[in-house]
Each structure stands twice: as structure tokens, then as C-alpha cells.
Amino acid sequence: MPITTGDAAATPARSLRQRWISACARTDPDQLHILADVLGIDGTAFDVLRPAENGLVMVRGRAGGTGQLFNAGEMTVTRCSVRGRSGHVGHGYVAGRDKTHAELAARLDAHFQAQPDDTTLPIVAELEQQIGERAHARQQKSAPTRVEFFTMVRGEDE
User: pTM (2 decimals)?
Assistant: First the structure.
């Protein structure tokens, strides 16, 4: 859900940035390396503000999907922040402990901020499509193991 502010003009750019940060976090690091090579992004064009570091975040859920909040447990997350030569600060947050993935995601965030939306949007759409295809393949692979439960009600004996 996009964050809304009083400035309506800032909302579309913020929404696109949320999309590319999410896509970079969920894309395979090998694919991100290829993308960075294609875009001409190298590590020398960035200053590391916050080196990649591992930490924990609390994962929360809702009972029944809409009910009361509860703490489901902790999850390992890696974060990194860099500043590009353009002055834009990029942030990378990824699930797990892959420091190079977090740093690469931060570099891509800083790079995309310096680019016009019309050049960034097709790249983000392609990454999102690949993520969707991988999720669909996982669902298809696990579908045969699905178990359906049902309850039979017996008649009341009086």
C-alpha cells in the first residue's frame, strides 16, 4: 500500500521507487549482477554510507488475516546504504544474510533515482515479471502435494 502525503505529485515516483526496491530485494543476486553490468554500474561510483550488516526484524501477522496482530517470530535481514556520484542515497534491504545482494540492491536504488521514470519502469516491470514467474513455478511444483481437509457432520442422535 503506497504511503500518501499531501503532495500528490510525489506519490507516483514514491510508488515506483517502492516497486524497484522490492524487486531488487526479491530478484536473484546473479540476475542483479547481470543487470548492473548491462547498466554500467560498478562499485567505484558509490560511497558506502552504511556497510552491509545483518540483523533481525520481528515478523508480525494477523489472526485469520484480518484479526488481532501477533508476533510470528524473527527473520534475518541484511541492509546497506550507499551514495552515488549523482548524490542520490540508495538503500538495500534483503531477506537473509547475503551482504553482496544488499549492497547491489542499494547501488541499483541510487542509480534508478538518478534515471527518468520512463527508462526505469520497463526494467522494474521485467524484474517483477521474472519474480512472478518464479512464484508461479514454485506453486505449480507444490500443487500436487496439496491436501484438502473437510469435516463431515453426523446426524444428532437423540
Answer: 0.79
